[in-house]
Write a structure and sequence with these properties.
Layout: E1 3-10, E2 15-23, E3 28-33, H1 41-52, E4 56-65, E5 73-75, H2 77-89, H3 101-105, E6 111-113, H4 120-175, H5 177-194, H6 201-214, H7 218-237, H8 242-262, H9 266-286
Parallel strand pairs: 3-4
Antiparallel strand pairs: 1-2, 2-4, 5-6
Length: about 290
């Protein structure tokens, strides 16, 4: 399921923002984007996501903002001296302006922020505070996904009911088939015998009986009813049911394909195709369920 959440935190020196995004996925995939020096938070973020979610692609990012003047800096003198010497070599070059000190100081790497000057206690407390903010963002993301899941549950329940209706129609159609098949086979046997078919009547009747048995869809109907009932139980139970519903969607499709292949009348074929259409919609929505 898709979702987005954001949580802010801070202390007397810095402020930070956690952002968590999720999109559909068959498995759990977590990607973290953290500032330099915050690598210790990546396993924490992965564990926190694993505790709350089972499926989906997650992107978690941390943004840290330090107020101007708070971060101490130092000048990389060796690099600055090298740049000054290089500029001196080009002092007589045409169309080259003489470098200014403020320009050299603005080059990347000349002025560096001094990291790690804070005490270990301050850094540890900050990491703990960041974890609290992270949990707030993930809790909000979980709430967003639950709200979306509630809406999807309604859609899936409607699709399951539609499948149940179509299976019942197929069942009623199949209930009338034995008599119709018998009459059709009797007529076919009579036509073949009248045409002088070289096959003995008993042999011909046996072969046609085998075809009648192979065209029976009673087992497929029973399995579809069982799958519809299982889907209803999963939707009522809630929890992590995405994989189970995905498996049921595959089984639905298998039985629907068999019905379509066995169907020898227009009505049953149309019902089978309608079932397949609903199954495709069901499977597409199941991909959004955790």
């Amino acid at each position: 399921m898709t979702g987005f959440a954001r949580a802010q935190g801070g202390d007397e020196h810095v402020s930070w923002v956690w952002e968590a995004k999720s999109v559909n996925g068959r498995s759990l995939d977590v990607r973290c984007r953290l500032p330099p020096g915050m690598d210790a938070l990546e396993p924490v973020a992965r564990a926190a996501i694993g505790e709350r979610f089972r499926r989906g692609h997650f992107n978690v990012s941390l943004h840290i903002v330090r107020p101007a003047g708070v971060v101490p800096v130092r000048v990389n003198r060796p690099l600055l001296d090298e740049l000054v010497a290089l500029a001196h070599d080009y002092r007589d070059a045409a169309d080259v302006d003489k470098p200014r000190l403020d320009g050299l100081l603005g080059l990347r790497g000349v002025v560096e922020a001094v990291e790690g000057v804070e005490s270990e206690e301050v850094q540890t407390a900050r990491l703990r505070a960041m974890q609290v903010t992270l949990n707030e963002a993930l809790d909000d993301l979980a709430a967003v996904r639950r709200a979306e899941g509630a809406k999807l549950a309604v859609v899936l329940a409607e699709q399951r009911e539609r499948m149940a209706e179509l299976v019942a129609r197929a069942d009623r159609c199949a209930a009338l088939r034995p008599t119709a098949v018998k009459e059709r086979l009797r007529a076919q046997v009579a036509e073949l015998l009248e045409a002088g078919a070289p096959v003995p009547e008993e042999r011909l009747a046996q072969e046609l009986a085998v075809l009648a048995i192979k065209s029976d869809i009673r087992e497929e109907i029973d399995r579809l009813n069982a799958h519809v009932g299982a889907a209803a139980k999963h939707l009522e139970s809630g929890g992590t049911i995405g994989r189970r519903l995905d498996f049921l969607a595959q089984e639905f499709n298998r039985e629907a394909n068999t019905i379509c292949s066995k169907a020898n009348d227009v009505e049953l074929t149309e019902i089978g195709l309608e079932i397949k259409a609903v199954i495709d919609q069901f499977r597409e929505q199941v991909q959004n369920i955790e």
